[in-house]
Design a protein that fits this description.
Length: 239
């Protein structure tokens, strides 16, 4: 159940057997969520943090006019709300975009972990720091990248993150995003999203058929996106 999280952490530092055992004791079997169902709702005060085990979810803000803006995509191995351990009340929601399987870490158990296992605590802290780095890239995409570059950057990022947790097949991966949901990610209309995807397809850097994305020319895709994976901190070193 915690294998995606272990792969995530081990891509950045060594995780000891003792730390692995402690994670297994802390993270308990959760439940499944259907597409469109809130995993955590805005305004909740959860007493646990939620780990993505399988599927795709999104962090979102609901606007007063009923529209929404996705502010992050969460993949297996991500804690979708580890920050709730300290914030207590969430100012946003997390929605399942595909069938999602999750596990839970009770905040009481997380507190004990942070008080007794400093290295593992730093690794979990790093998890939230990488979330913040991803958020900065999303802000840069929203404000300064063209919409073609924005979508290309998203594809690059998701491929690298999913490869880290063993969820790719060669140069292909599953992406359970509708075009309407993609529009919610990049902050444009559905029509604009459709036109931008068509323009990207003509460059033949990647193909997106049904729910399968296949990267056909990685250097070209990175060039379109201006993608540099440094912000993901995927280097094994002491933390």
């Amino acid at each position: 159940m915690i294998e995606p999280l272990l792969m995530n952490l081990q891509s950045r530092d060594v995780v000891t057997d003792e730390e692995t055992d402690r994670l297994r004791d802390t993270i308990k079997i959760g439940r499944t969520f259907a597409p469109g169902e809130d995993i955590v709702s805005e305004g909740e005060r959860p007493t646990y943090s939620t780990l993505m085990v399988d599927g795709l979810s999104a962090r979102y803000k609901q606007m007063a006019d009923g529209t929404r803006q996705f502010t992050a995509l969460q993949v297996p191995g991500d804690f979708v709300d580890l920050h709730a351990f300290l914030l207590h009340k969430l100012d946003h929601g997390i929605v399942a975009l595909s069938p999602c399987r999750v596990a839970f870490a009770d905040h009481t158990e997380l507190r004990r972990l942070t008080e007794t296992m400093p290295h593992l605590t730093r690794l979990l802290w790093l998890n939230t720091i990488v979330d913040a780095a991803i958020n900065r890239e999303w802000i840069a995409s929203m404000g300064r990248r063209s919409k073609q570059a924005h979508i290309a950057h998203l594809i690059c990022e998701l491929y690298v993150r999913l490869r880290t947790v063993g969820k790719v097949d060669g140069w292909s991966f599953q992406l359970a995003l509708t075009q309407a949901e993609l529009a919610d990610v990049v902050g444009i209309s559905l029509v604009h999203a459709n036109k931008t995807l068509q323009a990207l397809r003509r460059q033949e850097a990647f193909a997106w058929d049904a729910r399968t994305v296949t990267i056909k020319d990685w250097p070209r895709l990175c060039e379109i996106a201006g993608f540099d994976q440094t912000y993901l901190s995927l280097r094994v070193e002491p933390r």
